[in-house]
Write a structure and sequence with these properties.
heterotrimer; B: about 350 residues; 5 strands; C: about 300 residues; alpha/beta; 2 domains; 6-stranded mixed β-sheet; 4-stranded antiparallel β-sheet
Chain lengths: ~130, ~350, ~300
């Protein structure tokens, strides 16, 4: 069973952090199909967070098809996360490495690179939503 | 709630029972000897004229127990005040000061039931303890009381007749009334002031004032007084003459009614009207008494006879109990009003 | 969803001072509700009114659909934990549980025993000899084991050390989850509230400044930064909560139901703490604001 933790300073909403941790665990094969997620009560007590927060995260995961709640028993993993096959990762990594090299040659330091990436990423997401 | 009240009240109950036990032991140690003195001096079952002398003998023999007697009187007189201060005042103020009332009032119990249980249990304990002290002391002083009624020589223990201030408050049933009053007074003051020390101080002040006011202003008038006249020169009369011819007359005792409560005594003329000056006797300092007597002046005495003793005791007790109940009722009203 | 606390124009006055004024709330059930505000804002007054310890001076309040608890039926449904967790110093822990059992018909003895055994303290120990955290846990046990529907706590962790505070909140969350409790707790420490509460009420100087689900509050409050505009020009429907200006820059914390699209302003989100602090600063003197937020050049 996975154990959750919370980063109070990350600026990410607690329920999102829980969702990320479940998805991360699925990707790393720490969570497999049929595994039970910790009970809402235990997560709330363990982290001292609102049980509704945990419920929200579990409901969101259920909506994404990753878990299913069995009333009276618990919440169980039903889906898998395909982050794209590893084959798709390699060319993307290569492209990213080339871009990074370009950015360095242009004289950008670490912070500028991170800032460009973050703002582009954010605006791309917003365009996706809009 | 009964259990909680008892549990909270445990230390006070233990202290009271210890005190009562110590008191009882002291009296139990000396009581039988006192009773045997009563017997050997021949007062037991005595009838007839010789009894007066036997009683006088007993009372002078019993003089060795003066200290115990005084202690008993002191304990009984002080007990109501102690009950009021240490049982009554802190009953509610402790809960206010520690904040535990917020714990108690949010359990599934109404404030009325909370107060009622506390008042009832502690109040009954107060009455019970007071009754215990009074009965024990009453048992011990019974021979003395009997003898005093028979004695011809009015030598009451410590010079106190039954109606004298301390003696009346220490004997009979009134201490129970005082205890009930002091207790509910303490609770009421505590409910209003909400702090223990100020509540104790105010309770003591009010209780002391009441205990002074009652014998001075109320007790004499509970029943209509009797009147009689005493000759100026008689044994129990007193006369004070000042240089400019004015005088005041009084009586120490009423012959034939030892222990009667003399409320007032003043000079009256033959017709029974008060006189304040007799011009004919002015300037005769040495012979004032005989002069006054020859002028027909007597001492008019207003008094309560000893036969009224128990009537006054019960009436006064009833008054205090009624006041105690009224205070308790006020507490309930005020408690539910406090929500505002 | 039913309302767990509903007030209309609620006010409470002590002599000449209004401890609470014009309070109108509609608190839904099934949430952990945080009541935040500076000391003296009226939090204890509001909670005392809800728990039946005080009666209103004006306005109305209803709790769990009825009047605030005074009779046994309602008292059984509401649990209260007063500030500083008052306990009977002369009674042992076990005797406190007996108190709970005797005074509450819905007492859950098994739950109470289980919670106390987790404390790892001898139940015969007198409550007066316990640490602050242990006293708070005993008081919490008393409030929870009576199986209420609504639990009201007045600054339950204010005087606890960080470990005791964390343990208390953990236990509170466990109880809230297990028993489907509605919880209302007040605190002047807003950081804890962010983890624990999903509904927030901001009370400053006897008045409610903001109330609503935490998600809604976070979605409708924004930080706007931009070139100096004093007074700021903003679209209708945008309410400035606090504003701070330097010679070049203006920083505003605003409440807006629609997104602020004016390109002059950089819009960012605010945390719960900053949002609450902005409301608390509303009454603060102006000079403090400048020192706090102003950055020259």
């Amino acid at each position: 069973m996975i154990e959750f933790h919370l980063d109070g300073r990350s600026g990410v909403a607690p329920y999102m952090q829980l969702i990320h941790q479940v998805r991360h665990a699925l990707r790393l094969d720490l969570l497999r199909q049929g595994d039970q997620l910790p009970k809402v009560k235990d997560v709330a007590a363990g982290l001292a967070i609102n049980p509704n927060t945990v419920l929200k995260a579990y409901r969101e995961l259920e909506y994404e098809g990753l878990v299913a709640a069995r009333p009276g028993i618990g919440t169980f993993v039903t889906g898998t996360l395909d982050g794209g096959s590893l084959a798709a990762h390699r060319p993307l990594r290569a492209e990213l490495a080339r871009w990074l090299a370009k950015a360095r040659r242009a004289g950008l330091d670490d912070e500028s690179i991170e800032a460009i990436f973050a703002s582009t990423f954010r605006s791309a997401r917003e365009e996706d939503i809009a | 709630m009964t259990w909680l009240t008892w549990r909270q009240f445990r230390p006070q109950t233990a202290a009271a029972l210890a005190a009562l036990a110590a008191f009882a032991v002291l009296l139990a140690v000396t009581g039988p000897h006192l009773a045997s003195l009563y017997q050997t001096d021949g007062v037991t079952g005595c009838r007839g004229a010789g009894c007066g002398q036997a009683a006088n003998n007993f009372l002078s023999d019993a003089g060795r127990y003066q200290v115990v007697y005084a202690l008993g009187v002191a304990v009984i007189v002080l007990a109501p005040a102690i009950i009021g201060l240490f049982w009554g005042a802190p009953l509610i103020t402790r809960e206010f000061e520690t904040g535990t009332f917020r714990l108690a009032w949010t359990q599934t119990i109404t404030r009325t039931r909370w107060l009622a249980t506390k008042l009832a249990l502690a109040g009954l304990a107060a009455i019970g303890v007071s009754l215990g002290f009074s009965l024990t002391f009453g048992w011990w002083t019974a021979p003395i009381g009997q003898a005093a009624r028979l004695a011809t020589d009015s030598s009451f223990p410590l010079g106190m007749g039954p109606f004298s201030l301390l003696a009346f408050d220490a004997h009979g049933i009134v201490p129970v009334g005082y205890a009930a009053f002091a207790f509910t007074l303490g609770v009421t003051v505590g409910l209003l002031l909400r702090r223990t020390i100020p509540a104790m101080a105010l309770t003591l002040a009010i209780f002391a004032a009441a205990q002074v006011a009652m014998p001075l202003a109320v007790r004499p008038h509970l029943f209509p007084a009797e009147h009689t006249t005493v000759a100026v020169g008689s044994v129990d009369a007193t006369a004070h003459v000042s240089g400019n011819g004015s005088f005041s007359l009084g009586v120490r005792e009423l012959a034939g009614q030892p222990g009667a409560w003399v409320l007032s005594a003043q000079a009256v003329n033959a017709a029974g009207q008060p006189v304040s000056s007799v011009p004919a006797c002015a300037g005769q300092a040495q012979h004032t008494q005989s002069c006054l007597a020859s002028q027909g002046v007597q001492i008019g005495v207003t008094y309560q006879p000893t036969t009224r003793y128990w009537a006054i005791q019960w009436t006064e007790t009833a008054i205090y109990l009624v006041i105690a109940l009224a205070l308790a009722g006020f507490c309930f009203w005020r408690l539910n009003l406090r929500r505002s | 969803m039913t309302e767990v606390i509903e007030t209309a124009g609620l006010g409470k006055r002590y002599r000449d001072v209004w401890a609470l004024s014009d309070c109108t709330l509609s608190v839904p059930a099934g949430h952990v509700v945080g009541l935040v505000g500076p000391n003296g804002a009226g939090k204890t007054t509001l909670l005392s009114l809800a728990s039946g310890l005080l009666a209103p001076s004006t306005g109305t309040i209803s709790v769990l659909g009825g009047p605030p608890p005074t009779g046994p039926a309602q008292l059984a449904r509401v649990g209260f934990l007063a500030q500083d967790a008052p306990v009977y110093a002369g009674l042992s822990i076990a005797e406190h549980l007996k108190l709970g059992a005797r005074l509450n018909p819905r007492w859950d003895a098994g739950l109470a025993r289980a919670r106390i055994s987790r404390l790892d303290v001898d139940p015969r120990r007198k409550a007066g000899k316990l640490s602050g955290g242990q006293r708070a846990q005993v008081a919490l046990t008393l409030a929870i084991a009576k199986r209420p529907e609504l639990l009201i706590l007045d600054e339950p962790v204010a005087s606890l050390d960080p470990l005791a505070r964390r343990q208390f909140l953990q236990d509170l969350m466990e109880a809230a989850s297990e028993q489907e409790l509605s919880v209302v707790l007040s605190s002047h420490l807003i950081g804890d509230m962010e983890r624990v509460c999903d509904y927030l009420i901001v009370l400053v100087a006897s008045r409610v400044r903001a109330a609503g689900p935490v998600d809604d509050l976070l979605a409708t409050h924004h930080l706007l930064t931009g070139p100096r505009q004093d007074p700021p020009r903003l679209p209708a429907g945008v309410r400035v909560i606090s504003a701070s200006h330097t010679d070049r820059q203006s920083t505003l914390l605003v409440h807006a139901t629609e997104p602020v699209l004016n390109p002059a302003w950089t819009v960012s989100g605010v945390g719960l703490e900053d949002m609450a602090l902005a409301y608390m600063r509303q009454d603060a003197p102006l000079s403090r604001d400048h020192h706090h937020l102003g950055v020259c050049k």
